[in-house]
Specification:
Number of helices: 4
Structural class: alpha+beta
Radius of gyration: 16 Å
Strand order of the largest sheet: 1-2-3-4-5-6-8-7
Number of strands: 8
Amino acid sequence: MAYVIETKKLPKSKLLPISGTLKNGRKVVLDYANESDYPTLQGLLNQVIEEGMTYPQWEQLTMDQFKAYFLAADAFTAKDVESSEILGTFYIKPNYPGRCSHICNAGFIVKPSSRSNGLARWMAIQYLKIAKDLGYKGSMFNLVFESNTHSVNLWRSLNFKEIGVVPKAGLLKDGKYHNAIQFYYDFTLE
């Protein structure tokens, strides 16, 4: 790691909880993750790490590693209103330290059984509102692999700017090197 990002505790977003309805009619609520959610969130992250096509980690994370990575600042869960099942999650944290900590980063996971129902788009839209509410001025995604077409298309559709490509950034589970697109969104233009 080139530098350590010391996160400062920001005031909680006043926008939460946020309710919504997915394409399949399922009612969901987005709120801050709580400690009882951590094992499930760790499992979701480890599942996508094992899939090996969207996150850069080689190995699954222990709980301590998960907390240091995913819970470094703010983490959120999208839950089914009726069952409280966690359907998806994302974190928001500074992308850089100190004088550049006003630019955030985020990581998203949708439970495999909840994909293709509009949850990722709904969480992404809420993310834009919450990150701005938390005081961030911009959002930067460092490694969106070109092969992750769902993510690439989502960020393009939400008017993120493509600011660069890192050639052969990730050796993914398919055994091939994949380029990564860097996306940026400027909250100050809204």
